[in-house]
Amino acid sequence: MTPARRAPRRLLPAAAIAIAVAAAGLALLLARGGAAGSSAAPRRSPAASAPAGGSQLPQVSLAGLRWSYYHGVELPSSPAAGPRDTSGGLASGFTDTPLGALLAALNVAVRANAQWGPDIYGPTIRDQVTGPDAAALLSGCQADYAQASQAAHITGGAPLGNAYVSEEAFRWVAWTPSDATVDLVSAGPGSQGTTVQATTRVEVVWSGGDWQVVAPPGGDWGNAAAELSSLSGYTVFPGQG
Predict the structure, then answer these.
(1) pTM over cut 0.85
(2) Which among 14, 154, 184, 204 could bridge 211 via Cys, Cβ 3.0 to 4.6 Å?
């Protein structure tokens, strides 16, 4: 029997980043510039399109996944596929397998966000994010954090607070041992007590013995995200959907 999920709590208002329904991850996420329950029309996103037909997409066993809370976000890990190193609140050391790529997409992309403070988003983006828009992602996180921390009177680089989001499902878009793209479904609190779902497209590339996340277009996770109304075609994480 699938265990009942706890009702998601309110996202921290000071973060000014919420589930992108305009999100992801991030999915999540926590998409920069979006707010839960916003009435604005969502941006068109690659995440809204289905995977291209004919591609060889992997089958992934989710047996043995472990879930833990990271500042309120439920994130998966695997003793076999990673992350092997979570010291300092970071996550690295993933296997060059489909499951390793999936876990890297989730764990790295979530950390590439202003919510957790410069001690997390700084090294994550500098060391684990690549692509032409990586610098824009870092500068955006720096600006978002500076504004939100000042408004909330948070000092010393501390996290802005918890963000109560669940990672619920995924859908492969493309896979090779050196480059993979996956749509990640996140859920969190919307307006009037509803639960909002969003999908964020995350690409990872194998480089230097680990997976790196490719920065979203324009360095803004909102540009990789779309609202979601159905989990049809997605693989639900055990106990999450």
Answers:
(1) no
(2) 204
The count of other CB atoms within 10 Å of the CB of residue 27 is: 33
pLDDT digits (tens, 9 = 90+) for 187-236: 888 777 788 888 999 999 999 999 999 999 999 998 998 888 899 999 99
Q: Which two tokens stand for residue 166?
A: 């669940």
- In a domain, residue 1? The reply is no
Instruction: Please indicate, yes or no, if residue 43 is contained in any of the structural domains.
Output: no
> Structural domain of residue 130, as residue ranges?
16-34+66-236
Asked if the structure places residue 178 within a domain, the reply is yes
Residue 191's alpha-carbon distances to 21, 36, 40, 123, 162, in angstroms, are 12, 7, 13, 34, 18
Q: At 102, list the tokens.
A: 């999936």
- pLDDT digit string, tens, across residues 183-192: 999 888 877 7
Structurally, the chain folds into a number of domains equal to 1
Q: How far apart are CA 91 and CA 83, in angstroms?
A: 6
Please tell me the number of Cα atoms within 13 Å of 179 on its side-chain side.
4
